[in-house]
Amino acid sequence: MYEPAELFAPYDRERCQVCGECLTACPVMRFSKSEGQRAMETMRAGGRVARLDRRCQMCLACSVACPRGANPAGLIFARFAETMVQAGPRQWGRYFQQQQPINFRTDAAAALAEEDRALLTAWRDETPAEEITYPGCNVCNTAWLTRTRLLAGHDLRGGFDLCCGEPFFRTGMENELRQCARKLNDWLGRLGARRVNMLCTAGACMFRYVLPRYGLTHAMEVQPFLETLHADFQAGRYPIVAPLGLTVAVQESCYGKVLGADYTRKVRELLEMIGCRVVEMQHCGERSLCCGIGAGFPPSVGYHPAFMVHGAMRVWREAAKTKADLLVTYCAGCLLTLSAMGTFYPGHLPIAHLLTLLSRAIGEQPPDHLGRISRAMLWGAVRRQFPKLLDPRRAKLEPFAD
Question: Is residue 135 domain-shared with residue 261, that is, in the same domain?
Answer without folding.
Answer: no
